[in-house]
Every structure is written in structure tokens, then in C-alpha cells.
């Protein structure tokens, strides 16, 4: 089965978040609101900070949309804290980071590069039922785009809240939507 | 292993393309240039035509970038032709459509909704070696965005052509890139 | 065991029928009256419309005999509707079509050409107990004959309603039948 | 895979034919010309003789079309001869009967009623390559129709001899045929 | 284990007996009296009628001894009746014939020539408990001898009715028997 | 497969024969002439000596017909010799006895009463090719009949030497035989 | 596990003992008193009678010690009786002989020469709990020694009756024994 | 198969022998002369020293007969040496002791008490071909007898050197032996 | 999983301790106080006594710390006693020795040199819950150091008794310890 | 088999060492000189820096003894560098650190706490043949002692260089050693 429409698998990870003591996060904690799992290869590396910064700049907006954000790499929570303490860009980020040194999350979402022990550059949007609704993955060296991610989350939230409506290509909030019906079959 | 970095699996499908007789396309035909596999659930339905039209409007630009586009659903090539003949929006599209009534492609890319016999809404960008470099998947009812797709293909092509360079988040053509090195570790 | 005398296997398919919204049909819905499953390779192709038209011309007669008719191919119900909307011959047909893009029915009746994902040209007559009583299959390119099909259904109904009677070769309604007995053994 | 298009499986059976000594028939002997395998439940019973007589009346015509006919039941060749010697209707038949007391043919064609040791009422038309092109099966008590069988054999022979042509529904020799092409897709 | 002393296995067969309608015979029906299962290769053949006639001439005597006789071949009950109707010798026989076209009895008694689908020439005597007491088998072409069979049945009945007595070689009714005892060990 | 027509299985046994030292007999030694394997339960018991004596009285006649005789029980060759030395009846016998304390022969011919370690009372006639042609088995307490055994051996030898001839029931040397042919089918 | 200390396995055998009718002996009958199982290859052979005679001369003494003796070979009880009747030495023996033509005992005690169907020359002493306490085995051609056997049985009985005492090498009744204790460790 | 007549299995053990450095002994070293494997439970215990002393007193005699002696327990060669150094009785022994702390020998000869890790009290005599000819085993607490062991070895050597002769029960060197022959069967 | 943190596996062994009778020790007896399992290759050898003596000199101190000591080799408890009786150094030792001739403990702690049947030179410290907290292993020929062992046991006891405190490298009793906290991450 | 004496398993890891670019280290690179693998749970944590600092202070001495040191945790080489850059204590260390985010080394040496994805606190000394000679493991919270480690490495080197010598307990360089011999068995 495709990953779209599947439910997230069980996990338990230790999180670091600025201004708090370490805490555990499980699949059950994630459910009940929207969530982004934002995988990147490793702390202290190159593209990752620009992507994390780009995402950090949209965090307030995402929080207003009811969306939590989790940064995930195969580093420990100790390493996440150390990076936060020593990097200016990372130090600004307010969302939690999960330590995946066990590789559980990377395997659950099928993004572990097994010969390296590092995760791919991959984003998953989870709805409040724990179901995966949006996936983005890019090769090493290609940064993601938080703007486009927010656009798609808005569309997915619109569809969830308006049963019987769908959002056409490149839809932006406020644009027209479609209501599928028998009469429209073969007519669009 | 994650799908990013994996090579496409063998397939053979009958294609419909406007102005030509039906023809076969295999995994070997795909290699040697960049390619987009653009999966959608079914001919004659709702979101699909707006996404296909959006993609069609970028087809000339993609052709200039050396990228071929394949529309794919579990319908036959007969059905693809009939849709092209009877829908104004679809009738304008110049790229080929593959008949996947055998479900081979939908299973190869792991996007078959097995209880329905239809594909998810999913995009895969393949490099000239047949390796998957970019993945996008969205839930039913959320249209994709061809502009963002083109942005990411440009970045992937830049990285392939400029070894030792990486593109930061939301990079657009002409923007600055980064050259990773030991000195940068922990410094970005 | 031969297929004659076997009971139809479970299935669930979405049906298109002119003048109605899409609806589900299952093996349980089929039971309780006589039914014809009329398989053909694909919508929008060549022999199929002539055979479907021939069968359509006998539909009123079959309805009077208490027989429902189901057209079946591996196309979706969307495709069936589109064909109905755009083909004059198909547009006249009043019986339902089942979307078998899942291949369940084609496999249940053992008529899937596995290397193509299309069904054979095959007819199955089911009695009100869900038991297969008559089978006809022909190679690609040879059309079936609705007149002969009706003749055989009448004979099967006659036998079901008149236990102890059998219909000789090429029997037509009103002709003489036979009553098997020990005395007739070796005497016909 | 469906039975249409499959090749007959190996067998060896002893045949009785009027005016000859017993002889062996194998799958290799069948190939090279068209053939009908005409299964029936048992010698000395009821519907069978009327069907066999009906078929016998078309034997000269079938011979002219290059078609051999084989009657098959699970009786021995001794029993076939005894029936021929003692029944007026059967005594007139000129085509060979195969003794299938081993059940090989009944199993090869999947028509053995396993709980009875008798074959179903089933007809298979084989082309000169040993490939099954037409199948007819009816429940106990419903006789077949040799006229319709001849019509379908003529159509199958026409299609084999005229590549690129197909015979529409209820086609009779001399009627119009169709030549499938891309232009006809969705136009019939 | 040897066949002597084993109990007959379950079966159900349709029987023909002169002057009656067809009826079922099972292993349970056989028990309660003595029985002979008299296997022969096929109806309408050569040695069989002489053996069956020889046995038929002892049928009254066997009936008086409380022994039922069953003729068995892999022919159907229809064929048995037809043979009875058309052969003078067979027509005189008053005991039942079992149709073993399912090969159940031939396999139960291990007398099926598997490459031919016919039974060996074999006789089994069953006591009222369903236990096999006497076996005779001969190759094709060698007829059995009903006189000797009756002699052995009388001896077996004598032994059953006179516990502690045994019948020496070639014993005839009325001859002397032996009573085994410790004293006789090594003394005969 | 039935035992009639099967070839004897490999064995090696030590034999005792009056007037000779012990010697080995194998399946290969048996071939090339006719042979009787005459199984009995145990040395020094009751019915066995009368049967062995009856057979011994026909030994000269059997030798003239080219038939060797082997007495077989699960006793050792030492025991066979001791019985011969101490029993008047057994002491007269000139044919060899095989020691089957290994149970090889009793299992090869499927006559071992497994819960007792003794053989059944069973006779097998083997032709010069090592093929079993005649079988007789009787329950404990019923003696065999050497006269009838000789009758059947004569018939089996006649059939072997006269291909195309068969011996009817209760045939005695010099009586009429039958020549099977197509014309006789259903006529006897 | 070694055989010493193991319990005898289930068996049932028919026994011959002078002056009695045949009777059954099982593993349960053996328990409750001491027993010797005295295996030898075959009745009527060479070393065996001298060993059996030697043992027989100690039988009264063994009976007084509460020890039963069982002679065992793969011969039948009939053969044992015949040997007793015809051999002077064997005729004097008063202990029972078991017929092991089933090989159960020979396999239970692991003394069957499988390629010959005969037992090894082996002695087992069983205590009243059915536990094996003493084993002696010798190759073909070497006779055992009943005196030594009696010596060891006395020692085993002494040990059983005097917990805490052990018998040193070559101990004879009345000689000194040892009482093991911590103080004796390393001191003898 | 019984242990008598079987060949010793491969092993390698470190040996201690008075007046020598430690050395390895394997199954190959054992072959070529007669050998005794003398198992006992443990160094420093109770019965063992009396048995070992008894055997030691026959060592010169055994050496003259060409027989090597090996003491075996699951102790190490270090322990064997320590026992020899500290025990007067053991210190006198001149034959080698094998360290079986690996349990290989105890398992090869099937004398390991698995729940204790100690060997049973067991003696095996091996001929120059490595074949086991004599076995003696006694329960805990019962000492063996070296005199009787020597008697049996003499008999086994006599039989090996004089083919066709056997030694009767309780045979002592110089006594009469037997030559088995057909004439003696049943006569001793 | 690493051995640190695992619970000891079940065992039962016979112990020798100076001044006591032999007694059993099991895994359950070990729990409830601290324990050292001190493995060494063999009694009566070279490095072992110096290590055992070194440990013996710390035994009073260890007893005060609530720690029991078990010497373990694959020798028997008889051998342990004999060594104690005959070696001055070993004779002074007051702690118990376990006989592991069954190899259970050596396998449980994964220190058996399987090709030799001897244990490695290895020390395991067990806490009162039966959990392994400290491991030391050295190659043949390198003696351990009881001082360092005591240092580590003190540290482990300190940590157990002071949750939230850890002992830095080379910590000695009375030195400073550390209390880990979020603030210290990356700061030491 | 115990870990002592086993050869290190294959691995490949990326190393960070102050003043160098990242480089690969494999099991082959390790061989040819002595090596320490020094496992610790995680970068940026508590006990680890004191242990690493303690080891660092002995690094020059170890280098002189020809011993390389590898720090190992499940962190990446990026994290190792970042720790070095930001911690004063760690920044002083001159030996290489291996990134074991793949868990290969932690599993090879059996020290992975599987439920945490972190390594135990464990030290392994490898000789120039890649064979493990010394192991030390302590529970969480108990620091190791570099002095004692150096002592044991000296002893292991001494033993390797002086075959036939062993180092007694708590041996320090220059102290007396032992030369094992037969004479010393049981004498120390």
C-alpha cells in the first residue's frame, strides 16, 4: 500500500526543546493535532541548518494552524542540545527535536540510508488521526521549501474540514475549490 | 532503504500520446534523460485534470530542461485516448500517458491503493541514470504545484552538474549555493 | 472441479448504470434472480460494442425472464460512464456495468489475461442460488450471439422448474423434452 | 490464466471409430488441423444421444471445414463400441470416441465432476496449433446446439485467416467484418 | 500390514441388479453377512464373462451359505445395465454389479492398474465384520475357479464358527480338522 | 498399483535345503525360471505342515513345469533345519526354505502381521522375468490347495507361451481357450 | 544418557517355560523383583547352549537371591519349545524363554544386529524398580561366565540394601565394603 | 545397531602417564593393538581407586597380551597428575589417563550421566581394528573385576586368531573350544 | 544485548568450601547480596593460584562490603577439595568453589573455550538483584588485580546507593562524584 | 566461545581526529599494532569526559607501547568534531574517534544497549593479529581506570613477547614471572 493514507507506527523518542528538560514523545502524543516530521541527515552539517531555519521562520504560522513540528535525525538528544547551544541559527529554533539514534523513526517512515545510518531529507504531514497526508523527499543537496509545505497543509486542512470539496492544482487559500459529482465525470 | 536514491524497477506499458499510434515504453526507454512519473487516480475524474493541465503548461519549459513527462493511471491506453478525444483540457496535453491496468508501475512505485485498484496522487523525478531524486505525494483532494516541482528539478540538476555544491532551502536558480567542508561542520 | 455447478465467489464492485448514481454490487446482490456476467476486454474498443449492442437488444426479453445483465471489464466505473456519454451504441444500453480495475471478478471467473490486465470475451449464466449453469468463451475477434444465449437460458430455466425433465440438443421453447428413467438407459 | 488461448495438455487415449480397429489418440495427433472435443457424462444415457446425433448431422460439414470431432466420456473404448453396436442413433455416428476411464482428458479440460467420476457437458474448439479458441459448457439437462457451434468455428477460422479483421456479434459467413485501428477507438 | 485381517475401507457406489432400480451400496451395507468382491477389468470384454458366468452358476449355493456377491469394474452402472441387456451370458446373472468409475473400490483394494484405469482380476472374501479373509488375484488372461472359491469360503466359515479348530490343506467339507495345542507344537 | 504385474523387490536370505550346506538366495537368483514363494506363519506349528506336505507332493510335477518352490517364514535357517531334522512330514520335503528373521521378504510381499512378527499364509507365483502373476492369501486356520495352484500356473504358462490366447474360468490343461478380438467385444 | 540407570522400555512377548502353557510377559511383569535378560543370537546354534547351560546351573542360586532369568532370542516361542524338546542341554533349563521375533526387546536394549535380524550376546540385570544396573556384552564366539554375573548381582543387591556403602573391585560376599564421606575424598 | 561390532569414533584427548610429559591420544593412536577404555566417575573418589588398583595389578599381564589400558574420567590431565602425586594407590599405576573434560569420549561411548557431567563405571575392549568386542557396565557402588576381564580378552584374542573356533561359557585359556558346523545345528 | 545489565541465568552446582560438607549453590542462592564469579581454567595449574591467593587476601574486606566470592572452573567439587588439601596457597582460601564439570556456568557467562573444555580467566560482579554490573576478562597468562576489582565494586555500590550520582574515572572511595543534569550536557 | 581469543569482525567507520580531515577506519587498518577500543554511551554527556580525559593523559605512554586508541560511540563523526570544538576537556584529546551511528561496532563487540541505541562503557584490547586479549566493562555511572588498563597491556605484551612465561596476579613491569611446566602442576 502507498504511504499516503497509512497510520504512523509506534515509536518512543527522547526530545530536546529549547527551555525545557528532556522529555519523551510517542506516536500517541502526536495524535490529536496536525504534525510535521522533518527528517534531515545529521546535526552540525550543511544544508540542514538552512532548511531548519526556513522552517523555523514559519513555525508561528504553523502553530496558529494547529501544527506541531518535529525535527528528526539519528543523533541523540544530547547532540541536539549541544547543536542548539553552539549554533546561532539552530539556537533560534523553538520546535522540538527527536533523538533517533535507535533508527526507529527512520525505519518507520522508510527513510533510513542503511549503509550510512543517516536519514534522508524527507517531510511527512500527519493529520490529527495519525494518518500521513503529504510526503516530500529530496536527494542530498537539494533544500526544501517551507512556503510550499504550508500551502499544501492549508489545502489538506480545507479538504478535511469541507467534506465533498477538493482543491485543484496550485490552489492557494481563498481560491476556488471543486465539488466532485457524477455529472462532472468526464466533464473537467 | 528509502526510495530516494533507488533505481526504477523494470516495467513495460502501452502509451498514448497525441498525434501518434500507441507505442510501448519500458524502464530502459526512460533512462538517458530526466523524467517525471506523474501518477493520478483515474481518467475522467476531478482534481486530476487541473493538475494535469497545470503540468501541461510547464511542459515546454520541462522539455527545454531535458525532462520527459509521463502521466500514469490504472486505466488502459484506450481510455487515455478516449479522455483526450472528449475532454478539452486533456485534449491540449502533449506528453504521453501510460496505461497501467496491470498495476505494475503503481506497485513498483508503491502507490497502489490495493483495496481500490487506483494509484495515489504522486510525483517521482528520475535522473538520467534511472535513480529517483525527488518524491511528492498528497492525499486525495489536494492538488500539486508544477512551479515548485520545476524549482526542485532545477536544484537537482544543478547539484548533479556541480559536484561539491549544495542548494539551501527554497533555493531559486541564480541564488547562492554552499560548498560543504570540514571547516563548516557545526558552523552553519 | 469443473466450473459448471460451482457457486460464484465473493466480490464487491462499483457499478455504473444509465440514469443512476454509482452504486456497489456484491455477490450477495446477485443471488435471488438469474444473472448474466458478460466479460469483454476494454471500453472504447472494437468487437465489444457490437456484442454489447446485440445483448442490449435482448435486455427487455431477458428482464421478462427474470435475468439481470452485468457488463464487466477491467476499466473503472468512471470510464464506463465516459464511454456511455460519448458512444451512441453504448449510450443506449440500460443494464449496469461493473468496474473491475481490481481484477477480482476477472480472477474469480478465471478469465484474466494476466500479461495484459484485460478480461477474455466470456459469458456466465448464474441461477438464483448463485450457481454457474452456462459458460461461453470465445477468442479475441469472434463475437458472441445473444439469441443462442437466450435459448440456453430458457432451457436451463425449464429444467430448474421441471425436475425430472431434460431438454435435448438445440431445444427451443415449446419443443418436446425427455424424462430420464431406468428403462431409457441404452434405449435412446 | 483463462482457458481461452491456452494449449491442450498431453494425453493418450484409446479411440473407437466405426469400421476401424481400436487406435491410440494423443495431443500430438490432434494438432495440425481444427478439432472439437465434445464431452458428455456417460454412454447409454439420455440427453447425450440427442446432442451426439445433432453433432453427427453436422459432421460432413465440419470435415469440409477441416475439423475433426472427438466424443469423450469416462467410459472405456469397449463401452463406446458396445453402445455403437446396440443404439441406432449412436450407430450412425462416424466420428471417433475416446475412452477416458483414466480421467486424464476430463481433468486436463477441468470438466470432471469429481464426486461422480463423470464429465460435464462441455465443448472445446482447438485450432491447428493446439490452442483452445472456443468453449461452451452447460448444466446437466440442457442440450447444446451444433448450428451455433459451426457459426463460431467459421468466425474463428475467418479471423485466423484474415489477420487484422474481427467478426462482430452474431456474425454469419459472408457478413461484414471490422478492421480495428487507432481511429476507431471510442468511435464504435 | 498384510491385507488379510484388515477391514474394508469406506466407499459408496451405485449398483445395478437385474429387476431393480439403481441403488447405492456402501461399506456399511456390506457388513453383517459374508460377501465376495469380484473385480474384473471391463464390461464387454473377453475372459470376464466366462468367470462371471462360472460365479453365477454358484450364486444360489453362495446365497444359501449367506454370501452376497458384488461384480465390480471401473464402468458405470449405466454400462453394467447395457451389458446385461445385450449379452446373453451376463443377462442371466442375478447378483449386483457396482459402478466404480470413481476408482474408489479399485484403490481401496489396491487393484487399480493406474496407467489403464482398469481393475485387476481379483477376488476378496469379506466376513460379517467387514474383515478380509481370503484373497485371489490372477494375471490378465487367466480365469478364476468358482469351485475352489466356495471350498475356501466353507473352510473360513467353519473356522469362524468352531473356535479352536483349523482346516488342513485342501480340506473339503466333512473332512477332518485339527485342534492346535501346546502338545502339538513340533509334532505335526 | 496392484501387486499383479509388479516385479519382486531386492532381498537376500539364507536358505536351508535338505542335503546341502546353508546358501544365500537373492531376487536375482529367482529370475530366469518360474517360482513359488510359499509364506507360512511359523516353524513347528499346526496348519503349516499339512500345507507344506500338500505342496511337497506336487514338487516333482512343479519341477517338471520349471517351477522352483521356496518355503518362507520369519524363523532362521537354523530353525528350518531343526524342524526338518525332528519332524517326519517336514523331513520329507525337498524344496528350500528361506530364513526371514529380518522380515525383508514378508515386508516386500506385504504379508507381515506387524503386531506379531509372523507372516500371513500367502502364495505368490513369479514368472521368469520376476513379475508376480498369481496371488493367494487365506486367513489363519484355512489351508491352501496345491492342486488349484498347479492349475493356475499351467494357465499362466499357457498364456505366456501363446500370445493372443486367454484361458476362461476354471480352465484345465487341454480345454479350449479364447482369442480376443474387436469382433468379440460385447459378444461373449 | 548411558544405559546404566535407565528404566526398561515397554514390551510384550510370548514366553515358553518348561511344564507350562505359553504365557505373555510384559515390562510390568518384570518389575517388583530382580531380573536377568540373557540375549543370545539363535536357537539351535553353538555357543549359546553352553552359556545357557552355565546359567541354568546357577538358576536355583539366583532364584534364592530373588532373581528371575529370561532367555531371549529373535526366535518364536514355538521354536523355543521345539529346541527344549529336542536338545538335552536345553531341555534341562527351568527358566522362561521369550520369543522376540518382533525384535522389540532387541531394539529396546539396543542389541539387534540389524543386517542379520539376530541379537548380540548380551546380559542386562534389572532391579525391582525396572532400572538397569549391570550390563555385559561380548562379541560372537566368546562365552559369558555365570559365576561373575552372580558376584556382581550380589554386590548390586548389597548396595541397594545398604545405602551409604559401596563394594570395592572384585568384592565377594562377606568382604569389606566402603562408606564414602567427605573425609575420604582424595584419601583412597 | 548394538555397540558390539561398532568402530570407535574420532576423539583427541590429553593424557597423563607417570614419568612422561603430557601427550595427545587420538582414535588413530589406539588402533593397531588391543585396548581397554576404563571409565570411572571422578578423580579423588571412592570405588574408583580400588578398581583402578585392581586393574593396575593386571597391567603387566595385559601388556604381555598386547593390550593398552586407558583410564578415563571427565577430569583434566592436570587433575589426573595431581591425583597421582597425592594418592598412594593411584601413584603406583603405570598406564595412561585421559582428560575428558570436553565429554567427547563419554559421549562417544554413551556413558555420560548428562545431569552430572560424570561418566558411568564402564569398560570397553577394542580390537586392533578399533572395533568394540567386549562391554561391561555396573551401577554406582559396584566394583568391577579385572580377573574376569582378562579371561574375556584372552577368549576374544583366541577367537580372532583361530577363525572357525568359538569359546564356550566360562572358558579359560587351555580349555576346549568348539568348531561350529551344519552338523552341529540343533545338536549341542 | 551487552552482558552489562543482564540477569544471571539459572544454574545448580555443587560447592566445596573449607570446613563444610559439599553443598548445592543455585542462581537463587546468589541473589540478595553482591557476588563475584571468578572463573579460571583449571585446578592445579599456574597463574590461577596467584590470582586466587590475591583475591583471598581481599576476602575479609569483600565480606565486609557484603560481597560473596565464588571460584569456578570446569573441575569437580572432588577436585576442588583435593587441591585445597594438597596446595598450601589454595588451602588458605575461605571462599567457596563451584564444580562446573557440566559447563553450565561457563556457557551461561559465555567463557567456555569450547575446543578445550576449560573456562577463560574472567570475573563477573553481580548486584543483589542478580544483574551483572562489572566484567573483566584477560587472556591466558595475564593475572588479574584484586585491588582494582575492589575499587570498582565500591563505585558500583556507591552508585546503587546514591541515585543521581556517578563516579568519574579512577574514582576512589571518598573522592568527588558528579550529579548529571541538563545543564551539564556538553559542559564537561 | 568466549570473546577472549576471538578475532575482531569486519567494520568500516568514519573517524574524526584533531587536526585532520575525516578518514575511514576498517578492521584491516587496526591490525599490525596493538589497539584499544574504548566505548562510551554518548557525546556531550557526564562520566564519559572524565574517562576520556583519564585515557588521554596516558595516550603518549600508550603510543610509546605501540598502542593506538579509538574512542567509539553511536554518534556521527560530525558530532565528534563538534564536541571537540566546544569542550575544553575533549578538545585536548589527540586520539581518533569513530562514528558508530550504524551500530556495527557496538554490535560486533556485543555492547549495544538495544533499547537505547547507545553503547555500554566497555574497553577492548586488541593485539597486532586482531585478537581480543583484554576486556573491561562497567555499569553506567562507574568510571574506568587507565592506570590499571596500562598495567594489563604491559602484561599481555610481555606474555606475547616471552613465550613460556606468564604474569601472576597484580603483576607490575619488572616483577617476577612464572614459567609453567609439568613439575609445577599442583605445586603452586
From TrEMBL, chains A, B, C, D, E, F, G, H, I, J:
GO terms for biological process: cell redox homeostasis; cellular response to stress; hydrogen peroxide catabolic process; response to oxidative stress. Keywords: Antioxidant, Cytoplasm, Disulfide bond, Oxidoreductase, Peroxidase, Redox-active center. It is found in: Cytoplasm. Its EC number is 1.11.1.26. The active site is at 48 (cysteine sulfenic acid (-soh) intermediate). Coiled coil: none annotated. It is an enzyme of class 1 (oxidoreductase). GO terms for molecular function: NADH-dependent peroxiredoxin activity; thioredoxin peroxidase activity. Pfam families: AhpC-TSA (PF00578). Residues 2-158 form the Thioredoxin domain. Thiol-specific peroxidase that catalyzes the reduction of hydrogen peroxide and organic hydroperoxides to water and alcohols, respectively. Plays a role in cell protection against oxidative stress by detoxifying peroxides. Homodimer; disulfide-linked, upon oxidation. 5 homodimers assemble to form a ring-like decamer. Belongs to the peroxiredoxin family. AhpC/Prx1 subfamily. This is Alkyl hydroperoxide reductase C. The gene is ahpC.
Amino acid at each position: 500500500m502507498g504511504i499516503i493514507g497509512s497510520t504512523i507506527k509506534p515509536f518512543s523518542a527522547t526530545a530536546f526543546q529549547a527551555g525545557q528538560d528532556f522529555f519523551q514523545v510517542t506516536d500517541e502524543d502526536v495524535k490529536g493535532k496536525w504534525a510535521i516530521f522533518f527528517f534531515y541527515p545529521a546535526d552540525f552539517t550543511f544544508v540542514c541548518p538552512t532548511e531548519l531555519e526556513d522552517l523555523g521562520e514559519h513555525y508561528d504560522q504553523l502553530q496558529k494552524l494547529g501544527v506541531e513540528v518535529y525535527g528528526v535525525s539519528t543523533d541523540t538528544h544530547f547532540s541536539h542540545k549541544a547543536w542548539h547551544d553552539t549554533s546561532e541559527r539552530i539556537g533560534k529554533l523553538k520546535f522540538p527535536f527527536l533523538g533517533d539514534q535507535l533508527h526507529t523513526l527512520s525505519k518507520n517512515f522508510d527513510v533510513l540510508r542503511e549503509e550510512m545510518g543517516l536519514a534522508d531529507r524527507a517531510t511527512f504531514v500527519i493529520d490529527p488521526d495519525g494518518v500521513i497526508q503529504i510526503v516530500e523527499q529530496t536527494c542530498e543537496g537539494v533544500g526544501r521549501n517551507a512556503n510550499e509545505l504550508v500551502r499544501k497543509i492549508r489545502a489538506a486542512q480545507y479538504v478535511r474540514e469541507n467534506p465533498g470539496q477538493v482543491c485543484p492544482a496550485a490552489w492557494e487559500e481563498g481560491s476556488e475549490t471543486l465539488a466532485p459529482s457524477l455529472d462532472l465525470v468526464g466533464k473537467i
